[in-house]
Structure formats: structure tokens, C-alpha cells
Write the C-alpha cells for this entry.
Amino acid sequence: MAYSEKVLDHYENPRNVGSFGKNEANIGTGMVGAPACGDVMRLQIKVNDDGIIEDALFKTYGCGSAIASSSLLTEWVKGKSLEQARSIKNTDIAAELALPPVKIHCSVLAEDAINAAVEDYMKKRAS
Amino acid sequence: MSQATINKPIYLDYSATTPVDDRVVTVMLKYLGRDARFGNPASRSHVYGWEAEAGVEQARSDVASLVGANPKEIIFTSGATESDNLAIKGAAHFYSKKGKHIVTCKTEHKAVLDSCRQLEREGYEVTYLDPEANGLIDPGKFEAALRDDTILVSIMHVNNEIGVIQDIAAIGEICRDRNIIFHVDAAQSAGKIDIDLEQLKVDLMSFSAHKIYGPKGVGALYVRRKPRVRLEAQMHGGGHERGMRSGTLATHQIAGMGEAFRIAKEEMAVENERLLTLRSRLWDGLKDIEEVYINGDIDQRIAGNINISFNYVEGESLLMALKDLAISSGSACTSASLEPSYVLRALGRNDELAHSSIRFTIGRYTTEQDIDYTITHVREAVEKLRELSPLWDMYKDGIDLDSIEWAAH
């Protein structure tokens, strides 16, 4: 199993690794996956008053493709609106990272993560 | 010199396979080529056949000698997988009138498990025992699983993933008392620990060449003569190997296996000491890392194997981070299915620890520098991946991961 350059790059040069305070009002947190499956992603977004994602951080327990998928997502959502972030498709992630078929589910999980983060933020705003 | 300098990773996967020893290659070449002994060992009428046969019989004797068997009790096959198939299906079919119950263990190699599954499809009943948390079978629990209609037991000597050594002497006594055929897969043990079939009450034993510096594609099956064990052949066509395994003998392969076993007999004791020293060095360099666990009993274990779970770090990401090391993981991501190692699951390891395991197996060509390089890089990789891990964060915050309701996909 040779690792694609792009996937390796996200591990060798991690970007946006970390966490915000969970309970701050302008932070949305999405935690998806399960240790039993070998994949857990935590994606957090910091949204400004105009509904634009200013910043995003992630942490992932999972294989190289999972780490790269979530890392890539944090890069992509910065500067986007919530709607735009939610419309990112796992197929885009998979294509960008050249994920083999057996790793496609990692990109699906990343898509779930951003949706969960957006949902969490919206719930906070609503309450 | 550390292997990492030759642009290939350091090889630490000796349980997967081993390089063929130079001395073995030399012997094998004697049976290939026009000027070599290329004849068919079954050709009775000319010197080409006789000299090839001599090579086979020498190898047979070398294999028998390592394990305390009579050469007449050694059948050559295409590998331990075939030997397992022949032993299990062969014995089950031959003795089916006596009964149709088989006992084995959940941690067996797939060659044994899948052969048993096949027999289940044919109407046999199989009991798959759970090992204790250290990977070892409890003889009391084993005995309790035996029935009046049990005809065959198959328990591996050394497990390929965790390297633990089963007490086949004790299990053999129990089986012999009840006249139950006892098969042992010794693919990972022959040449690594002592085997004396004159003492052990084992009826069938599978051997592999490529786990002990011999070539791939050849193995053997020990079939006891006193008391006599019969098998239904699985390969038909010519009656070779006392009717138990037809097919022209691959002289060069067999000669290679014989030489590998001869070398193993000579060098095993010294090699084991060296491997134990190296493995202890490796563990000493890693054991103070927080939340690391050895999978399987550390004492009842072959010297060259250590299988470690690095909690909160997933196995495949660790392999990626350690691309200068050739190792393997019990993580699901490294298998074709998405399920973690069935061996680690059978030990009762929870899924996280099963997903976080790395198997390091060292061997004849592993050096101290290899070990030191490994220690440095494993420490670095684990630290880095834990920085990336939300589970490590949660652990550090004192959160009990078992209490979380995960949104699994």
C-alpha cells in the first residue's frame, strides 16, 4: 500500500491541528466515527457574525487517508459560508487526494464531520 | 549496517516471510539447470532420477531431524497451508465414521479456520475455543470442550500475530488419552523452539519453509506412524508421498527446505539468545511510553516476536508514519475488510487497542542499529500522531471513552 504524495504531505506537514474551546458561542464542533471502526474525526469551525467560517481546526484518530481527508477539509472550509461548507462533497475530497476505492469511506466521514460541525453551530445559534 | 541506508525499509516482518539464506540458495541451485540434478525424483530407471531422489531424501531426513521424527513420517507439500488442509480435511474425512466433532481455537491461522469452515459446510461440527487474555489455551477449558464424538483437535504451536507458545505437550496428553487425533500447525515454531515428536503426543504437524529462511512454495506434514495415523489424500494423481500427496516433487524447493531446517537445528540456540537480547532492547526503548500494551503473554513467546498496542493511535497511520520500517498491524485499515485483527479480538482486546497494534518480528539479519533506529522513529511517530488524535485529548482530559455514544457511520 504505497501512500499518495498528497496524503503523506498532510501527515508530514499538518495544518490546522488543534482545538477551540467547545463551549464558545461561535464554535461548531462535529465529532464523527467510532474507535470500534478505527476512525474518529473531530472538526471544529469558528464562524464570524457574517456566517463565514474564519477558522477551522481538526484532530483525527484514523489511517493516513482519514487524517488527510479531515485536514484537507479544514483548508477548504476557511473563508466559506456555512452553506458552501455543507455542500462540499466527499467525492471532491477523494479526487483531490487520489483516494483508492477502499479508502473512499474516509472522505465520507470527513463530509459527515463538516456537516456535524455546521449543525452543531446552528443549534447553538438557535438556542 | 542499518538496512535503512539501502533505500528499502528495515525489515521487521520476519513472521510474514524470511529472505532465503545464501546457503539455502546454493543448495537449491544444485537442482536447477542442465548441468544440475534436474531429474524427476520418481524416475526409477536412470541416474537423473536417482540423484534427484537422493536430494529429496536428504532433505526429508534434515526436516525429520529438526523435529525428532522418522523421515518416513514426513510428507512434502506446497506449504503449511496445504499441510493444514491435508491434515484437517484428510483426517476428518478418514475418521468420519468415528465422529464429526472438531475442536480448534479462534486464534488459529486462516488455513486452519477456513478448512474447518469448509468441514462445517459438509456437516461437521466445530468448536472454536477462546484463549485466555494472554493468548494461551487453558487445558482445563480445552478438556471440557471435548466430546465422545470428537475426532480431531487442531491447535497451533506458535501464533503468527502474537508469537505465544501453546502447551502442546499438555494438550497432546489429553488427546491421546481419548484417542483423538491431534494436529499442530508449527509453521511459526519449527526452527525457533524445540520440537521433539518422540516425546510430544502429536499426530500431525504442519511445517513451512519460508518462515525459517527457506523458499516459499514448499512445506511438509508430519504424519505419525506409531500409533498410525491415516489421511484421505487431497491431491490425487500418481500416489507420491506414500499415497498421501500426489504430484512430482519440487526437488529444488524440497532441497532448500531441508537445508533451511538443517541450519536451523544447528543455529537455533545461539540465534534465540541474540533475538531475545534484541527484542528486550526494543521493548526497553518503548516501554516507558504512556499507554502501551504488549499483546499476548511475554514469557510464553518466541524470542523474535513483539506485538504492541499504542493506545489512541491508529495502526495504519502508524505504519504510514514509519515508512522506513517494514512491519505489520492488526488494524482494520490494513486488512481488506474493515475489521480489526481477529486474533487480538479473541484475546478480549477492545477495538481501540486492536486497531492500534503493531507487530514487530525480528530475525537472522536484524541488527542492533536496526533496533535503535526503530526505537527512535516509533517514539517520534507515536508522539506526533497523538498530537493529532482527539482520543488522546479526551484521555488526557480524563474522559472515559467507553462512556461516549459514538455517531458511527
